Amino acid sequence: MATAAYPVRRNAFLLAAGLVCLSGMFQLTVALATTTLVVVTGVEGILGLGPAIFLVAGSLGVLPAGRMMDRFGRMPVIQGGFLLGAAGTTLTALGCRWVSASLVILGFAFAGIAAAVVLLSRAAAAEMFPPEKRARGISYVLFGAVSGAIWGPLVFGPMFSGRHLTAHALVVPWLSAGLFMVAGFVVSLGVRPDPKTIAQTHADDLADIGPAAPLREILRRPGIAAALVAAVASFGVMAGVMNLSGYVALGHGHHQSDVFLIISAHIVGMYGLVIVVGDVIDRIGRRTALVGGLAIVAASCASMIWLDGLLGMSVSLFGLGLGWNLSYVAATTELVALTAPAERGRLIGFSDFGANLVAASLALLGGLVYSGFGVAALSLSAAALAAVPALWLFVRPGPRVALSGSGP
């Protein structure tokens, strides 16, 4: 069947709708993961542990999920991710209701795996489009996640307005997050045929190379290393800082309900301009986008030293999201372009494994740095973790990344 005969746009719309639902759970997790475990246990020194559990679980779960996608198709795995997310948020709610740290931790782990798996939708979106339109294809789907900017103020914010933050007060919000994941599962059932089936119709240089190459061989291809470094650094720093931002905001004297406004600004930065970003990447080239995005991430992290008001933190988090957007979409587009359909799941899964692991480490260690040395130490450390790979990519010799197509 010709590619044009497949419902690519409908599938892209449904994948975007799935990320709309993920945004509901994502918004609440970012705002409350740092505080939920602290409230349940009463131990402030572990404020980075909640996000770390979420991210480590995601890193461990996404690698086998990517391999399963190559074997069984994209959608069965993504659908399983939504169901696992609903189970995770429900367990977290029960942990808050019964003041059980064990249930909260297990719930965080399930939700973390779910978020990492569902975010693989971006690769499924990219491969449905021809090579010259892949960055734009990713942007169409990721744009759905911008809805997370409204879930917080409209849904979760009012739940906390004027209320004292206790474990029992967190039960209903976590149950609400589970409903979003159930809705995502229902939406995902409409994506047919599987994006991998559509990908096999494109006339890629790598589309018909035979059996999938081992991961170690894929990693040696020109252009892969640069894309992986950018993907891991941009996501790791962004997610690590983002997951600590709620507690940093409380430390500046802001109310819990204000945190959702800050996170909303961050999500707008992450996804609000993603359609424009896709075209920008195609115009300026992927290598330039990788370096530029990391530079914006570094500058945004550093700015948190001085921008501590509600508006200032919102600006910093917006820039953090925008820098991630530019670098991460370019990196994902490159990783998809340099692999065959039967190889993409394992490579994107490996990329996300590293990214989530770095993010978890930064969330955990960043929590300790913030508790011991303050926001300046946290901001400068995060900025350095983005600036160093940006400089490495800028001066690194080797082939430049092409504007489109499958070459480096």
Q: Give the N-terminus to C-terminus distance in angstroms.
A: 30 Å
The CATH superfamily name is MFS general substrate transporter like domains
Biggest sheet architecture: none
What is the general shape? Answer: globular
CATH topology: Growth Hormone, Chain: A
Estimated share of beta-strand residues: under 5%
**Low-confidence region ranges:** 398-408
Name of the CATH architecture: Up-down Bundle
Instruction: Figure out the total of helices.
Output: 17
CATH class (first level) name: Mainly Alpha
Mean pLDDT, nearest integer? 84
Count of the separate structural domains: 1
CA radius of gyration: 20 Å
Q: What's the total count of β strands? A: 0
Element-level helix/strand string? HHHHHHHHHHHHHHHHH
Tell me about this structure.
With about 400 residues, the chain is an all-alpha fold. The C terminus is likely disordered. The protein has one domain: Growth Hormone, Chain: A, CATH 1.20.1250.20.
Secondary structure blueprint with pairings:
Elements: H1 8-41, H2 49-72, H3 74-97, H4 101-118, H5 121-128, H6 134-142, H7 148-160, H8 171-188, H9 195-199, H10 215-218, H11 224-251, H12 256-272, H13 274-284, H14 286-303, H15 310-337, H16 341-373, H17 375-395
